[in-house]
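Incident review: delayed structure delivery

Summary: a single-chain prediction request sat in the queue longer than the usual turnaround. Root cause was a stuck worker, restarted by the on-call engineer. No data loss occurred. The affected request and its eventual output are reproduced below so the record is complete for anyone auditing the incident later.

Affected input:
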Amino acid sequence: MILKQGRRWALVLSSLLLATQAACSPPAQTGRESPTTWVDEKIEQMSLDEKIGQMFIMGFRGEATEQAHTVNAQAEKLVKDYHIGGMILFDRNVDNPRQVTKLNQDLQALAMNNGAKIPLFVTIDQEGGRVSRFQEGATLFPGNMALGATRKPELAYRTGKEMGTELRAMGINLDMAPVLDVNNNPRNPVIGVRSFGEDPQLVSQMGTEMIRGFHDAGVLTVVKHFPGHGDTAVDSHVGLPKVPHDRKRLERLELVPFKQAIDKGADMVMSAHVVFPAIEPTPGLPATLSKRVLTDLLRKELKFDGVITTDDMEMGAIKDHFGTSRAAVKAIQAGADIVLVCHQLDVQEKTIAAVKQAVSEGKITEARIDQSVRRILSLKAKEIGKRSIITHTQPESAQGEPFANSAQAQAVARKTAEGAVTLLQDKQKRLPLAPSKTARLLIVTSNKPQAFKAAAEKAGYQADVVWVEEWAKAPVNELIAKAERADAVVIGMSRAQTKQLALIRQLEMKQKRVIVMGMDVPYDAVKLPSASTVLALYGATRPSIEAGMRVVAGQLPATGRLPVTVSGAYPYGFSAGVDGGGNES
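Output delivered after worker restart:
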């Protein structure tokens, strides 16, 4: 759900946390009990049910609208009856910072007053850009591909640090980020701008710096989706993708960022529901269920000794081909420590029961369970940013500093957005469009119309903004008539649609000045008329749209470079706005 009145919530949350920190936070760990001792003692005291519960991260939802902003019957049952190790929050669980803070306080209190009294991993998918559960009320950071376009690793670090500070303040101690997939397939429907780019070294550098930032903020991370989801043309949420390349190619591209993250101390690695025939010869067996991938490659070859988690086992790639509960057993047998089951209570209960049955039948040994639980508890005891999950269970106030929409966080988001804007094409030399001479803009977009209007007016334009909900039903003739009364036309484009392209062509034929702002991966640039001016923003966050409008107005240079290859005319590193165009030297 979109969060409103973010600045007000920042102040409310800051006050709330300052008032509750002393009451809610447990005492700091003393030197009498080391993390290793704590882990050993917990494992010795835990029942088998409690151990198995630690191996699950689960989500909860409401019954009617799916929204669940407080601890409901499903959440309580998962924590109290099944002793789960972690809870993942989705849009349905997020209303505003104060609400999320209270929710996390209640979830941790439930865990700490139950059974083995082990704090939860409280996790979320907050990648920045397109995948952000907090839309407002927390800082709107541009996504990974925007960071890749800046070529500035320090911005990746600062993004991780500021994003992590906000999350930890609200009680979120584990972020399902960053994405380390190398996006080198233009047809990839699920990764795209979530990736830093197509160059494994760029992805490695940006990813490891972001992890360092999260750690300095006290937040653990999950690198995903191992061994790589970037070169797929199928979304694993709905189907079973395959990466057909040989092992040498995987070593050269897909595996590089994961190797570097592991070498620098990655906390948790998420497996991909993707088939890799070069590693796993069993036809149709995805990485999540493959011992050759999780144990032989990840554990033995890459020497990863942290926690391995699956992606959500209710996704189509697993549910439709293997069944969630049966697949969970296979994933643990393959080497997974944590199984993610995010939505339906009946599926969650059946999955836990299937693992218990597998242990009772000897298909999974209790020693194998202990092995995973030791890794999980060791991660909860791991000290990062001068605290761990077991010493700082509850939400914190970040030492009283502002943490939601803070000035320093906003500055990082703004610098990233501004450094990312890439000029791909301006053959007619339309830029800049000085507001004093071309004041009237028609803006046509299917995404963020209010942000476009605010950004255009902030840049000095008079903006008539038209929101097109479905391009297939777009009134092209009406839009052309509106364009006749404008000095220039800005098109906000996510993925190019047939009618959208037809509108752009007709406007160019009428010699209207058209500026296309790409708010997704920039591959569609090759479909646009050669006369159009094209900017790549790599996302639709408010800072990105504001940066794009400032470039149009001549208030900001376009210094970003392509982090992916679009075509022979637009190769990796290309920029028409830097040094007269060209590639990186």
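Verification: The CA atoms of residues 139 and 407 lie 10 Å apart.
Action items: add queue-age alerting; document worker restart procedure.
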